[in-house]
Amino acid sequence: MSKFKTKKLVVCALFAAICFVVTRFLSVPALYTKGYVNLGDLVVLLCAFVVGGWQGSIAAALGASLADASMGYWVYVPATFIIKAAMVFASSYVFKKSGNKGKFASLCLSVLACVLAESIMVFGYFIYESVLYNSFAVAFASVVGNIIQATVCMVPTVMLITFFKNNSAFAKFVKSLHN
Fold first, then answer.
1. Which CATH class is domain 7-174?
2. Are the C-beta atoms of residues 37 and 81 closer than 8 Å to each other?
3. DSSP structure string for 103-160
4. Which phi and psi angles does 3 have, rounded to 5°?
C-alpha cells in the first residue's frame, strides 16, 4: 500500500486550484455550442506529468469540474469530472514510460501522451453531448472547438514537459512525489 504524503496532497491541491483558475478565467464562450474553449487542459496535462495516477486524476477533475460549476455549466460537471480524470489517468501511464528514454523517444512519448489525453476529451464530450442533446449533429459542432482547444493546449504542454525533464531540480521534485 502506498503512503499518500503531505507533499503530494499539497501538490494535488495546488493543481486543482490552478486548473480551476486557468479553466475559469482563461476561457472563451464557444458561439457554435453551449460550452466554452479554455486553456485548462494545459494544467490537466501537466498534472498528469507531475502527479499522475488516481491522485492527479482527482485533482485535475476537481479543478475543471468546479470551473464548469462556477460558470453555470452544471450539466457538464459529471462529464468533465470523468473525462478529465480519464485524461490524466491514461496519459500519466505514457508519461511514466517516457522517463528513461532518449530525448527524441521521450519527446515522442510526451506527444503521444498528450494526443491520447486530448482524444479522450474530444471523444468523451462528443459521446456525452450526443446523449445529452439527443443529436450527433449538435455534438459534432463541439468537436471542432474541442480539437482547437486540444491543439492549443498540447503545444505549450509538450514544450514545458521537455523543459521540466531537462531541469534536474524539477525532475528531482517530481521523483520525490512518487517515492
1. mainly alpha
2. no
3. HHHHHHHHHHHHHHHHHHHHHHHHHHHHHHTT-HHHHHHHHHHHHHHHHHHHHHHHHH
4. -90, 130
The position carrying cell 507533499 is 7
Distances from the Cα of 56 to the Cα of 1, 44, 106, angstroms: 17, 8, 21
- The cell for 53 is 495516477
pTM above 0.85, yes or no: yes
Half-sphere exposure of 135 (CA within 13 A, CB side): 8
Q: What is the pLDDT of residues 121-153, one digit of tens each?
A: 999 999 999 999 998 988 888 898 899 889 999
Query: Per DSSP, what are the bridge partners of residue 104?
Result: none
For the chain, what are the domain ranges? 7-174
Distance of CA 2 to the CA centre of its chain: 24
Q: Residue 98 has what DSSP assignment?
A: T
Q: pLDDT tens across 9-30, in order?
A: 999 999 999 999 999 998 887 7
Entry field: residues in the chain:
179
Nearest to 61 by CA among 83, 76, 46, 43: 83
- Is residue 71 within 8 Å of residue 102, measured between CB atoms? no
Which whole-number Å values give the CA distances from 32 to 79, 117, 133, 142, 144, in the listed order?
19, 24, 14, 7, 10
Instruction: Give the residue carrying C-alpha cell 493543481.
Output: 15
